[in-house]
């Protein structure tokens, strides 16, 4: 098989200086600038922008109604309808977490508890929100649907200690979730 060498075409003087591309880019930029001054910026009406361009006025305006269905926010633990913990301390979410943001210490349920047929529940369940990358793997791997990613993007804290969510805080922000929980199933 023969090798065919292709010779590059010689550039003209204007092409060597990139003058045409620079001028074209300048005119596109100026067109967008004038459109924003006239209030015709693309997307500004969707954001109900009150200023020039498509700037959202954050504390008053939120993205909540424009978040896609597949948006993944902060993880939280949920309880069932009766307020019982769904988590069985299987530690799958801890093992699958890529940045190792989840730490679980399993604990046993006392034998005098009416739901003692379940072996474990988390004694400690911590998520370091400074390390969490919101990948959703913890939610996917959970066999009891005990951890969910909320549509919350406002996670702030004044210190690293405030960004460490413990079991109490995770249940507080997670709330209740309706549906079958395998560990409380009478057939199990």
UniProtKB/TrEMBL annotation:
Transmembrane segments: none annotated. Residues 75-107, 123-152 form the 4Fe-4S ferredoxin-type domain. It is found in: Cell membrane. InterPro entries: 4Fe4S_Fe-S-bd (IPR017896), 4Fe4S_Fe_S_CS (IPR017900), NADH_quinone_OxRdtase_chainI (IPR010226). The keyword Cell membrane applies. It is a peripheral membrane protein. Its cofactor is [4Fe-4S] cluster. It is an enzyme of class 7 (translocase). The keyword Membrane applies. Its EC number is 7.1.1.-. It catalyses: a quinone + NADH + 5 H(+)(in) = a quinol + NAD(+) + 4 H(+)(out). SUPFAM superfamilies: 4Fe-4S ferredoxins (SSF54862). It comes from the Bacteria. Binds 2 [4Fe-4S] clusters per subunit. Its main location: membrane. [4Fe-4S] cluster 2 binds at residues 97, 132, 135, 138. [4Fe-4S] cluster 1 binds at residues 87, 90, 93, 142. Keywords: 4Fe-4S, Cell membrane, Iron, Iron-sulfur, Membrane, Metal-binding, NAD, Quinone, Repeat, Translocase, Ubiquinone. Belongs to the complex I 23 kDa subunit family. NDH-1 is composed of 14 different subunits. Subunits NuoA, H, J, K, L, M, N constitute the membrane sector of the complex. NDH-1 shuttles electrons from NADH, via FMN and iron-sulfur (Fe-S) centers, to quinones in the respiratory chain. The immediate electron acceptor for the enzyme in this species is believed to be ubiquinone. Couples the redox reaction to proton translocation (for every two electrons transferred, four hydrogen ions are translocated across the cytoplasmic membrane), and thus conserves the redox energy in a proton gradient. This is NADH-quinone oxidoreductase subunit I. The gene is ndhI.
């Amino acid at each position: 098989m023969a090798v065919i060498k292709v010779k590059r075409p010689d550039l003209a003087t204007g092409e060597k200086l990139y003058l045409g591309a620079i001028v074209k880019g300048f005119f596109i930029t100026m067109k967008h600038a004038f459109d924003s001054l006239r209030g015709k910026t693309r997307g500004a009406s969707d954001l109900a922008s009150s200023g020039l361009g498509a700037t959202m006025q954050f504390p008053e305006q939120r993205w909540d109604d424009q978040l896609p269905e597949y948006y993944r926010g902060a993880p939280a633990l949920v309880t069932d309808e009766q307020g019982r913990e769904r988590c069985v301390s299987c530690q799958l979410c801890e093992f699958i977490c890529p940045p190792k943001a989840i730490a679980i210490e399993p604990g046993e349920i006392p034998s005098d508890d009416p739901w003692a047929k379940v072996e474990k529940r988390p004694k400690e369940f911590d998520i370091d929100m400074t390390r969490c990358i919101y990948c959703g793997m913890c939610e996917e791997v959970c066999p009891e649907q005990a951890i969910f990613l909320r549509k919350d993007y406002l996670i702030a804290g004044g210190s690293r200690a405030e960004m460490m969510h413990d079991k109490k805080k995770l249940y507080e922000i997670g709330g209740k979730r309706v549906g079958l929980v395998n560990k409380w199933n009478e057939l199990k």
